[in-house]
Amino acid sequence: MEYLDFVGHLYSRTKRDYVARVVANNKAECAVVAKQFGQDYWDGDRKYGYGGYSYDGRWQSVAAKMVEHYRLKPGDRILDIGCGKGYLLYELTQLVPGIEVTGLDSSRYAVENAKEEIKDKLVPGLAQEIPFPDNSFDLVVSLGTLHNLYIYDLQQAVGEISRVMKDQAYIMVESYRNEAEKVNLLYWQLTCQSFFSVEEWTWLFKEWGYSGDYGFVFFE
Fold first, then answer.
1. Which residue of 43, 46, 113, 147 is most buried, as measured by CB atoms within 10 A?
2. How many domains are contained in the chain?
3. Which domain holds residue 142?
4. Is 95 exposed, middle or buried (0-12, 13-18, 19+ CB in 10 A)?
5. Taking the complete model, does pTM exceed 0.85, yes or no?
């Protein structure tokens, strides 16, 4: 199990007004809408989520880092848990022709509005009920998804990832290293259910027998 940062550069370049998130909008009502993970969350007003989530190539750099680190090659099978509209998987197919990709997401809206070239590789489903056999994938990734689960579902999801992976997996979640980042996370998040420090996440992964890699994003 190794700490790796594939995604931090994407989060750090986004400017956020944490106080306005709470003061300017009814954050509680926005969170209720966001947790439906429908059109409002993906392509509605920014107060409900992404504020419009369309392909812009930002995931190419993440895909390139993963290809290099995990030495991905044609024929490898990759599963993305919480794949959204499939942009990371699309980039992987462009970098490694012949790679086999599958995406799973609880949002039917995301799956139905995925990038056209990859849409037939995505299926709706839950991280805690992955519908594939044991040891099915050479690499399982989950970016910015598992913190949206309550701890009982989170434990099951981590177990499911361990079950369907062969040797390699990467989980990235939201976390914090100090009180300032904790407050920012509480202010900014709309869908997070598991608020854990870096030390707590690391302990949970070990406690649950997860042997893959992991990473965090922070709200500085």
1. 147
2. 1
3. 8-14+59-217
4. middle
5. yes
